[in-house]
Amino acid sequence: MKYHPLNPELFKQNRERFVKELPAQTIAIFGSNDAFPSNGDALHAFKQNSDLFWLCGIEQEDTMLILFPDNPDPKYREVLVLVRPNELKEKWDGRQLRVKEAQAISGISTVVWLDSIDALLQTWIHLADTICLDSNENDRKASLIRSREYRFIDEIQQRYPLHQYCRAAKIMREVRAIKTSYEVEVLEKAIHITEQTFRRLLGFIRPGVMEYEIEAEIYHSFLNQRATGPAYHSIIASGDNARTLHYNSNNNICKEGELVLMDFGAEYGGYCADLSRTVPVNGKFTRRQRQVYNACLHLHNYAKSILKPGISILKYTDKVGEEATQQFLKIGLLKKTEVKNEDPENRAYRKYLYHGISHHLGLDVHDLGTRTAPITAGMVFTIEPGIYIKEEGMGVRIENNFWITANGNQDLMKNIPITVEEIESLMKRNKK
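The structure corresponding to this sequence follows.
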């Protein structure tokens, strides 16, 4: 791993929080993600199952974690399962974890090899009444591929048909949504790397630069600061490209007089930053660009003022929509008649702001957490209003990351330049 070792207390606390929610006499089993093939004998870069990583911090393939708090033998209440190191495989693919290394990362004392787990697991399952299995229940899931966790569910249910079963995902949705101070500390490192990268870009962007050159600067900066890499595919969208929300081809030229919308974030220690900024390619906003940008910033600040414990995402989105309507009237995007006659199911402001305002953030960019229950202290959210104007070939989005506290929220990106004046000043200074 590129990043500095994380405090194993982070994972110990996470396991304690999860186990606390398990029914009595329940064994919970988590497995790693597939190593997906690309072409020939090549594989895509491995990405660990976020639930498994959240519980133990292990990023290696073919890993399992077994939690059985009611196991009569205390030694087997937490068991980390690793693939046995293979000398030949290590010559090709690199060194695999040893027992002491895995213990240091995870804080788990009992480590066993994968090739010996079947007999042990059978004994433990026979002692349990309920088997808790992991699944991907993120409501944004779009893939139809039957992944490893679902194949494992099929196998276990076939072998043990008379046990009760429960969904680890239901617990994970609740506990992973609430971040500990250890988690926020790691997230802040990802955010700091992202901040330094953005400041670097303000001195690099100019007319004639290619979108992919900006992306390359981001990647270079991330790796130089020990990030794993980008938390997601960076969006570098100049001009009218900014109206495409998940634009990531990044192959156009940035032109004089245009804005460039950048949505990017570093991944550090598994945790993801998520920043959006829109800046003038030539370093100076036009009068109209400034007007639209400030309207978007107003929406951002308004959303920040109401994103507090107790409000639901639905109510929060509605209130921001009301404010967006007023801002769009002020800057000439909407007419009073359009608002008066709007379809309640497709409100007028949606023509220019057609996405959500916030999402959970953590190990995944779109992290686990309910979008129906009231927001509670400990959650981390983005705030990312946008204004997209087809007629003007313009898109503006502003996004920061916030940790919800009992008294409101804490802007984890408060040090990142955000106002027109800050951006223009830094772009001017950096180009001297």
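DSSP finds 13 helices and 17 strands in the chain.
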